[in-house]
Structure prediction request, 238 residues.
Amino acid sequence: MTELLEDPALINSVAAKTVELRRLLAQVAVDFTPAAFANSLGAEDMVLTDLIVREDIGIEIFSLDTGRLPAETYDLMGRLKRHYGLNLKLYYPRHRLVENYTREHGINGFYDAVELRKACCHARKVEPLQRALAGKKAWITGLRAEQAATRAGLAVREFDAGNGLEKFNPLAGWTKNEVWAYIHANAVPYNKLHDQGYPSIGCAPCTRAVAAGEHVRAGRWWWEEPTSKECGLHVKRA
Ligand code: SF4
Prediction:
């Protein structure tokens, strides 16, 4: 991947997009105080983390600890602390919701049906996200349009009707190579699973490596159809 840094056209496009990204984040921090960045700890989110922390942009950074994350993701949290001095603000699931789910459906009930998978994601991700966003005027994500069929046409700015606040996806138009060129050019920490065939990383039991040429989200909930592959954090509601 470091060979990306030898592509002048790519370096130029990353430089131009980084200027725009910095400007947008700073503007969001001013116009939508308090704003928060939901850091999923994927490669894209490391770009946003790097800019927000190094430029000291006034946007809170938080992550959702579902309790089922891979060890490599916890390792990355530790490296963020060492590299940036960043103590990630973590939100956890309500223990009663998780207890009820596992008693009714089993510890890995999410494999049995899309509805049960979504119910697990709701308890471990959506409900904590709602608490994290309470009182915020805007939230920021690292979503990119080319990541999934469900993200085609993704806007940089949209109103999140479900959570009742503005939502910014400043990397919507970034390519995968632009993300990785930024990471390598700036020596940004990233999840080691990315080097083991995991382009997209979520909970350990619901993420696996993909083969060369497979879609970037093919390893997420691989037993489901592509059109259902969202956890509920980014679902549009009218
Ligand atoms: S990704 Fe899997 S383990 Fe994580 S919350 Fe969703 S269903 Fe549960």
Q: What stands out?
A: Strands lie at 35-38, 60-64, 89-91, 138-140, 157-160, 165-168.
